Amino acid sequence: MTSTVVDVVASLVARLPEGVVVREPAQLEKYRHDHLHDPSAGTPVAAARPLDVEQVRTCVTWAVQHGVPVVTRGAGTGLSGGARAVDGCLVLSTERMRAIEVDPRARVARVEPGALNVEVKEAAAAAGLFYPPDPGSFRISSIGGNIATNAGGLCCVKHGVTSAYVLGLSVVLADVTPCLT
Fold first, then answer.
1. Which residues contact 112 (CB under 8 A, 6 or more apart)?
2. pLDDT at position 103 over 80
3. HSE (CB half, 13 Å, CA atoms) of 162?
4. For the chain, what is the domain count?
5. Tell me: the pLDDT tens digits for 132-163?
6. Phi, psi (degrees; rounded to nearest 5) at 13
7. What are the strands, taking DSSP E only, across 32-139?
8. Is the pLDDT of residue 1 over 80?
9. Which regions of 9-148 does DSSP assign to beta strands (E)?
10. Domain of 46?
11. Is the pLDDT of residue 166 over 80?
12. Within this chain, do residues 90 and 157 fall inside the same structural domain, yes or no?
């Protein structure tokens, strides 16, 4: 990295708690691609692993201010190339955003994007509910990635794919406007 890039990345590190930003080349390697292992995947300048929406907004604000593209990544289990880095990007990994709240009376769960599909299934079952989408990677894939790809699985033939179980999304847009869909 050039000194300018190092300085720009250092400005992101300064805005976030210790451990959120990954910038060492050896550690960044895993953030370059998903399970597709596309050899042409780019090299990110950093990866951010936020713990909450406010940290996501900090990352997006920084990226917009510095003209850095953002590639969002869940668990990285996909085979579609959706988490494929582009040169000079910030990979925004949701891997540490894993909270799950289930309201059995309303039959609704609030799930952060990094929660694994299997964790959602277990939380639903503990509340006497059933979460059907079961892609082959359900033990290791994240809900955010499942939503991004509208994941299915064998249960979905009868019960429907992921989109059938999404009532709304809370997202951070490129202009850092929070949006509830």
1. 94, 97, 98, 99, 100, 143
2. yes
3. 21
4. 2
5. 999 999 999 999 999 999 999 999 899 999 99
6. -55, -40
7. 46-48, 70-73, 90-93, 100-103, 108-111
8. no
9. 21-22, 46-48, 70-73, 90-93, 100-103, 108-111
10. 3-96
11. yes
12. no
